[in-house]
Write a structure and sequence with these properties.
The complex is a heterodimer of chains A (514) and B (409).
Chain A lengths: L27 H9 L4 H26 L8 H8 L8 H5 L1 H6 L9 H18 L9 H16 L1 E2 L1 H21 L3 H36 L7 H31 L5 H30 L3 E2 L9 H28 L3 H16 L2 H11 L12 H27 L2 H9 L4 H31 L11 H9 L10 H29 L5
Antiparallel strand pairs in A: 1-2
Chain B lengths: L19 H4 L1 H34 L29 H34 L4 H15 L3 H15 L22 E3 L2 E4 L1 E4 L3 H29 L6 H18 L4 E4 L2 E3 L2 E3 L2 E4 H28 L2 H9 L4 H31 L11 H13 L2 H30 L5
Antiparallel strand pairs in B: 1-2, 2-7, 3-4, 5-6
Helix pairs in contact in B: 3-4, 3-8, 3-10, 3-11, 4-8, 5-8, 6-7, 8-10, 9-10, 10-12, 11-12
Classes of the chains: A mainly alpha (514), B mainly alpha (409).
């Protein structure tokens, strides 16, 4: 058969048949729909239920948005305009916009200040967040930003934040200066600084011991048991014993360090910044201000409110809690039992209690633990507590990152002759932080959402504003969807963009080849 | 700082120099810890001294005697007997049980939401997976406090008031054959009344639960020893319901239900679940469910595709692949973050104070604190309670986790 000549066959194709298009049910949208929506009876039911859900939500919400009233003075007027139709009353957002964003006490003619601060935040955050796109020099903006933002939001004289920034720079200069000194010069300096520091420390310890004995002799009547009584006596006596040896030892240690300069450099820099902040700052900024007055109307902390308060608390606490979290995580990894113990107890305690109880501490309890005449304002106490709270969580995230590093990294760093600080700063932390970025961002998002809890201790953040001045006013009594929806939208926008950023960053930092 | 490399170790010569405390890594850690100890003591001295001074100035002392004094306030949602003559201590216990109640309910519901949403987000069905993605993103990115308040407001404003159930032209009616009433004050459910012989019914119920576990063991053994697939789901359901209903019928209905009835201005009889509890419960469940959904999704994605393909090659059906191959392995990845979500629910339940549900933060940390002014004692007790609950939950969950862990040789 195979050798049948072609001529004997009735018909032979000389050209190839063009491929016919696949059947319509196997192409394009129809195929996609068949495969993705109706691939079986179960899937079909799911699709129908989902479609019903979507349609009912959209058809319910669309008239509500579409009929929304944007101009009205009260909820009654709003209802009159709607005349029985379903519709939102967005007029509350227009009417109370200032309250929702800035709180009800922030001076109206100063609204531009937090707005400028917010825009500058975007500018200042950009080089830190998108390091590859912006030049490194723009990081100077990021460094300047906290001082500028403080001045813009709280007001007062510009000289104060400028001088604080100046003292920090000056401290850095002192550090460099001492580091670069000749050894014999540094020995003289170390002698003086060591003597001063030793004496100061001894004096502090002496005061502390006296305080402990004071506690021990007053604790009897307060119903506490014998154990703390004995503990405080013992601690007091121990401290009395330590006063002189500790002073001498630390002074001697500083003197000894003159050769390589590590300790004396740090201590001198600390001295410098302490003197500048404690004694020079107030008078000098006052003097400057009387010569060149650069002043904005001062706004006390308790006047902050609305979404602005959430933003302030969120930014400040995240910024502060990352370094604190790193320190706690390193402390938990430490081989020194005491330091490790302190960090473990702190982290586990903070993670075990709700943020609300910590805010209660800030609200009613913290005042008992501070000297009688100090009056911290509430916002600062809240910042301290939220920072403590989130730093414990960040510490756990970073501990995960540290644990994920192969042991070889630590050993390689040691074998190169790097000391602990160098190894941690140059080898360990960059890698560990890279691993922990998603976790840190999660904590940051959670923290930002948790700033709404301050409304429970009667601070007027956006939720506090809604529950208090807005819902309890006669004009907008018991309005809820519009205002809560607005608050939810604000939080959604911020939190969603942060989490998208973290995913982008993760892809950017991916250096392994998979 | 000097390292070992810079200075020769002098230990071999046996002489001890003071500088070794700073420069020798063997002694340096001791030095640092000693300094840390001094710092801790100094901190203690500062804080304690101020505390003693402030308390003396205010004429207060630390005393827990207030726990025995009558509280003088009422709690509308309670699991144990309590009235305004009961002590502050009992009020704290009522609140504590309320916290545990809402946390327990929310944990179960959140797990259900989370597993369903997590599995459906991976479904091939485009529209379903997109809806689940929207659910997860919306709920994860908005504070739980706002969700609690929104749901509470809906409960108050949308649900009918008891008045609407009245009369012939009632605008609202009870659901499920007049057994459940949903009002803006709360939900009223039928309450069981334990008649004679009801203990037998309960005993039968317990016995059938034990029976279900025994049956599951048996079916597992069949599967592992003989390779037989014994149906589990339907027999378990039958085992749960059939004996109890039979006994109930044979004994002549020892357990009866008392239905809520409209009397005066409100419903009487039955079990009341306050709107605040429902709002808190539902908000916590749906918020945490979004997080659990992500954990579940991550857990399932962590199982390599080869496992699914191998199971398919063995001839297992898709639902068998899920329940026998993927989920048991994914559970190991899912459980640790699930534990921390349960802890979060317990801690977030303290937001009850925002809707007036009387949990332990509302009683001990709220009204008791305001009435007695004993801020330090109440807040310490409050923290101690949450700390204990957190540690207990993580302890038991870790035991469970260890049992679930892969047994490696």
């Amino acid at each position: 058969m195979s050798d049948t000549p072609a001529q004997n066959v009735a018909f032979v194709r000389t050209s190839e048949i063009p491929p016919s298009p696949p059947p319509t049910r196997e192409t394009g949208a129809i195929k996609w729909i068949r495969e993705n929506l109706f691939s079986g009876w179960f899937n079909t039911i799911l699709t129908l239920i989902a479609l019903y859900l979507v349609i009912s939500i959209v058809s319910g919400a669309a008239p509500w948005f579409y009929n929304g009233v944007w101009e009205a003075d009260s909820i009654r007027e709003c209802r009159d305009i709607l005349a029985g139709k379903t519709g939102a009353c967005f007029a509350v957002l227009v009417d109370r916009w200032d309250h929702l964003v800035f709180g009800f006490k922030y001076p109206q003619d100063a609204y531009w200040r937090p707005l400028v601060a917010f825009l500058l935040l975007l500018v200042a955050a950009a080089p830190a967040l998108f390091g590859k796109i912006f030049p490194r020099k723009m990081l100077i903006l990021t460094a300047i930003y906290p001082f500028l933002a403080y001045w813009l939001i709280w007001g007062g004289t510009l000289w104060l934040p400028v001088l604080v920034a100046g003292s920090i720079v000056a401290t850095g200069l002192v550090f460099r200066l001492v580091e670069g000194m000749a050894v014999n010069m540094r020995q003289i300096l170390a002698g003086v600084v060591g003597l001063l520091f030793g004496l100061g420390l001894a004096w502090l310890l002496f005061k502390g011991a006296a305080e402990l004995v004071f506690i021990a002799s007053n604790i009897g009547g307060s119903g506490l048991s014998v154990i703390p009584y004995a503990v405080f006596w013992a601690a007091g006596i121990f401290t009395y014993v330590c006063v002189i040896p500790m002073g001498i030892f630390v002074g001697y240690a500083i003197y000894q360090s003159a050769e390589d300069g590590g300790l004396v450099t740090i201590v001198t820099a600390l001295f410098a910044i302490y003197i500048m902040l404690a004694y020079l700052l107030g008078p000098v900024s006052g003097a400057f201000n009387s010569i060149i007055p650069l002043e904005l109307q001062a706004v006390p902390s308790r006047d902050m409110g609305g979404f602005m308060l959430c933003m302030i608390l969120g930014t400040v606490c995240v910024t502060l809690s990352v370094p604190l979290g790193i320190v706690l995580a390193l402390g938990r990894q430490s081989h020194m039992p005491l330091i490790k113990g302190v960090c473990v107890v702190f982290i586990e305690f903070v993670r075990g209690v709700p943020l609300i109880t910590l805010l209660f501490v800030a609200n009613v309890m913290l005042a008992y633990f501070l000297p009688p005449e100090t009056s911290f304002d509430l916002i600062l106490r809240v910042i301290i507590m939220i920072t403590m709270f989130s730093s414990a969580y960040i510490a756990e995230v970073i501990r995960g990152g540290l644990a994920a590093l192969p042991k070889g990294q630590y050993e390689a760093a040691n074998s190169l002759g790097l000391n602990y600080v160098q190894a941690t700063r140059l080898i360990i932390l960059p890698q560990a932080l890279k691993i922990s970025i998603p976790g840190i961002v999660n904590v940051a998002v959670g923290l930002f959402k948790d700033t709404t809890l301050v409304s429970v201790i009667s601070m007027f953040d956006i939720v506090g504003m809604i529950r208090g001045p807005i819902q309890q006013s006669t004009d907008w009594i018991s309005i809820y969807w519009e205002v809560y929806g607005f608050a939810a939208l604000l939080f959604f926008v911020v939190c969603y963009s942060i989490s998208q950023y973290s995913q982008w960053l993760e892809r950017q930092l991916q250096t392994d080849h998979r | 700082m000097t390292t070992l490399a810079d200075r020769p170790v002098t230990a071999s010569t046996g002489s001890f120099k003071l500088s070794m405390l700073l420069n020798d890594s063997r002694y340096r850690s001791l030095t640092f810890q000693f300094i840390a100890l001094i710092a801790i003591i100094a901190f203690m001295a500062f804080v304690g001294g101020n505390l003693v001074r402030n308390l003396t100035a205010a004429g207060l002392n630390i005393s827990y005697a207030f726990l025995g004094e009558p509280s003088g306030y009422d709690i509308n949602q309670r699991l144990i007997d309590y009235d305004s003559q009961s002590s502050h201590g009992r009020a704290a216990v009522v609140g504590l049980l309320n916290t545990l109640l809402v946390a327990f309910l929310a944990c179960i519901t959140a797990t259900i939401f989370g597993v369903v949403a997590g599995v459906l987000r991976l479904s091939n069905n485009w529209i379903v997976s997109k809806i689940m993605a929207v659910y997860v993103e919306i709920f994860r990115n908005v504070p739980v406090l706002i969700w609690i308040l929104i749901i509470f407001s809906i409960m108050i404003n949308v649900a009918p008031s008891p008045r609407d159930f009245r009369g012939d032209d009632a605008t609202a009616s009870m659901m499920f054959f007049d057994t459940i009433a949903v009002t803006n004050r709360g939900v009223y459910l039928p309450k069981p009344i334990w008649g004679d012989g009801s203990m037998i019914v309960v005993a039968v119920l317990l016995a059938s639960i034990v029976g279900i576990f025994a049956y599951r063991r048996y079916s597992r053994k069949q599967l592992f020893d003989h390779g037989k697939m014994v149906p589990v789901l339907w027999p378990s359901i039958a085992l749960f319901f059939v004996p109890v209903i039979l006994v109930q019928l044979i004994l002549g209905n020892p357990i009866t239900l008392s239905y809520p009835e409209l009397k005066g201005f409100n419903f009487r009889g039955g079990i009341t679940i306050l709107g605040s509890l429902i709002a808190l419960w539902f908000a916590l469940a749906i918020y945490t469910g979004a997080f659990i959904a992500e954990n579940v999704r991550a857990g399932i994605l962590a199982i390599s595709k080869g496992q699914t393909e191998a199971a398919g090659a063995l001839g297992l059906r898709p639902n068998q692949i899920m329940s026998l191959v993927v989920l048991p392995q994914a559970l190991r990845v899912i459980i640790p973050p699930l534990i921390s979500q349960y802890l979060n629910i317990t801690k977030n339940s303290s937001l009850a104070i925002a809707v007036g549900y009387m949990d332990v933060t509302g009683t001990l940390g709220g009204i008791t604190l305001l009435q007695t002014g004993r801020a330090i004692e109440t807040i310490l007790l409050l923290m101690l309670f949450y700390l204990t609950v957190s540690l207990l939950i993580s302890f038991f969950m870790n035991i469970f986790n260890n049992r679930m862990k892969l047994q490696e040789r």
